[in-house]
Amino acid sequence: MARKPGSGAAKSIISPFHGKHDHAHCQRQALDSAIQQCEKRGLRLTKTRQQVLEIIWASHNPIGAYDVLQKLQAQGHKPAPPTAYRALEFLVDAQLIHRIESLNAFIGCPSPADSHQCQFYICKDCGHIAEVNSNAVARALSADADQLGFTSQQPVIEVHGLCRDCSQA
Ligand SMILES: [Zn+2]
Ligand SMILES: [Zn+2]
Ligand SMILES: [Zn+2]
User: Fold this and answer.
1) Closest ligand by atom to 57 CA
2) Other CB atoms within 10 A of residue 157 CB
3) Residue 110 C-alpha to ligand 2 middle, in angstroms?
4) Strands 119-123 and 157-161, how do they pair?
5) pLDDT tens string 133-148
6) Who surrounds ion ligand 2 at CB < 5 A?
7) pLDDT digits (tens, 9 = 90+) for 9-24
8) Considering every ligand atom, which ligand is closest to the CA of 168?
9) Separation of CA 165 and ligand 3 centre (Å)
10) Phi and psi (nearest 5°) for 100?
């Protein structure tokens, strides 16, 4: 059952599109909040899960399951492929990462503590993805679903296009 969207107008935008930024900070913050969330919810962030999370947070670009496995192996780990894929599944279920369906790839979630009706803005040039949690969009979708008598599950919107830097280039 999808969580009802909040009533506030608040919208969080954590954008990798606004030029250069301290990405090490993003990575640290993502790891810290993942550890916090797991403690709070009684989930176990095993070493493999943490390594997979770190690989995914290497950038704001999505990464496929096979590439995650390759990177794990390059780091000297030889987990059986199912172990790596299960780690990905765990991270998706815990909403620490998201699967971008249209790309069949994964991206780190910058706000795992918040409600998870998210919209993804995907730059087709640089590949960066920004996650937005807009209450207005969530409310509009929920109202339409109500009218249809439809029970929606975590509706996800993936918007493809060009970020500012790439459209100016
Ligand atoms: Zn970053
Ligand atoms: Zn998210
Ligand atoms: Zn771009």
Assistant:
1) 1
2) 14
3) 6
4) parallel
5) 888 999 999 999 999 9
6) 109, 118
7) 334 445 777 767 888 8
8) 3
9) 6
10) -90, 105
Question: Which two tokens mark 131?
Answer: 């996650």
Ligand nearest to the CA of 24: 1
Give pTM, 2 decimals: 0.85
Ligand nearest to the CA of 114: 2
Amino acid letter for position 133: N
Please tell me the predicted confidence (pLDDT) of residue 14.
56
Token pair listed for 3: 């969580």
CA 59 to chain centroid, in Å, comes to: 12
Q: What is the pLDDT of residues 90-135, one digit of tens each?
A: 999 999 999 999 999 999 998 888 778 889 999 999 999 999 988 8
**What are the counts of helices (DSSP H) followed by strands (DSSP E) for the chain?**
6, 6
Domains of the chain: 24-107 (1.10.10.10), 114-169 (3.30.1490.190)
In the DSSP assignment, the letter for residue 4 is P
